[in-house]
Amino acid sequence: MLILRELTLQGRLKCFNAEVVPGELVHLIGPNGAGKSILLALLAGLEHGEGEIEFCGRRLLSHSGRQLARMRGYLSQQAPRPAAMPVWH
């Protein structure tokens, strides 16, 4: 279960509330600049805003970085060019 309460990031995302139950499919749509990417970054724990995100019965930020890495999948909308990637990639 994912619960979002009063989630905001000043200048980037206005107050957002939602509840997603297991097995539910959610589509996130909107015009450019609506806050879709920042919302996803907040949900992934990569940005910190105001409000509360509850995931699996706990506040998102109470999970360790290792736990978050095991529970999420995140692909940035801007990937580096192949020529700019380090050799180890």
Automatic annotation (TrEMBL):
Spans through the membrane: none
Top-level lineage group: Bacteria
Keywords in alphabetical order: ATP-binding, Nucleotide-binding, Translocase, Transport
Leader sequence segment: none
Keyword Acetylation among UniProt keywords: no
Cross-referenced InterPro entries: ABC_transporter-like_ATP-bd (IPR003439), P-loop_NTPase (IPR027417)
One Gene Ontology molecular-function label: ATP binding
Domain ABC transporter: start-end pairs: 15-78
Its biological purpose: Part of the ABC transporter complex HmuTUV involved in hemin import. Responsible for energy coupling to the transport system.
Name of the protein in question: Vitamin B12 transport system ATP-binding protein
Protein species of origin: Izhakiella capsodis
